[in-house]
Amino acid sequence: MKGLFVTFEGIDGAGKSTHVEGLAQAFRERGRSVTLTREPGGTPLAEKLRTLVLNDAMDALTEALLVFAARRDHLQQLIEPALARGDVVLCDRFTDATFAYQGGGRGYDRQVLRVLEGWVQARPGTQALRQPDLTIWFDLDPAVAAQRLAGARLPDKFEAQPVEFFRRVAAGYADRLAESPSRFARIDAAQSRESVWQEVLAAVQQRGLLA
Ligand code: TMP
């Protein structure tokens, strides 16, 4: 079995996490071994960095350096070994989130983010960077996402941002899709949970990934 790398993206409140679990189950039912993980996080070191990024005030470059440091450890310790074993790696957020949140939301220089992406996702012996095989983007109007999040739980640093911040994050995702349209499946996350799930399944099946 060839390894498969699928990432899940969207603004806070878009409702992606339940579908990550659902897709893990669908792959397991077809006999695939699944590594389920998230960013920032996924390894002991990266989870420590996650706590800092989500709770401590810092400038946008510091934030970008920490999420890419977490990503480097995550790739080396967990993602690359899992792909080499032939696992399906399902990752709740990856580098598109950095371009959306730090690049779009925080307005940080995307050229610098591209340099960091090139360093962190370099693969020895090849020119190609490690990128997801498929990215499922749960696209939702930030005003609707804010309603969904209201009162749900104590918001972290990003969840506490105003709707305008999430409009810039959403625009950041749209830019990433425009750069690599074949990698993305955009899903209208305003639909019912069941309809969203059917679209997630269809996106994976249409690409022949869930045989
Ligand atoms: P989560 O709540 O979906 O686990 O995501 C954690 C938060 O971290 C979310 O608000 C998005 C943010 N984030 C970034 O700002 N940059 C990144 O590179 C990643 C992966 C997440």
Q: Based on CA inertia axes, which overall geometry fits?
A: globular
> Strands of the largest sheet, in order across it?
2-3-1-4-5
C-alpha Rg (nearest Å): 16 Å
**CATH architectural type:** 3-Layer(aba) Sandwich
Q: In sequence order, what are the helices and strands, one letter per element?
A: EHEHHEHHEHHEH
Taken together, the total number of domains comes to 1
What is the CATH topology?
Answer: Rossmann fold
Report the helical percentage.
Answer: 40-55%
Distance between the termini: 12 Å
Class by SSE composition: alpha/beta
Fraction in beta strands: 5-15%
The ligands bound in this entry are: thymidine-5'-phosphate
Low-confidence stretches: none
Q: In the CATH hierarchy, what is the class?
A: Alpha Beta
Q: What is the number of strand segments?
A: 5
Task: Provide a count of the helices.
Answer: 8
- Please, what is the CATH homologous superfamily? P-loop containing nucleotide triphosphate hydrolases
Major β-sheet annotation: 5 strands, parallel
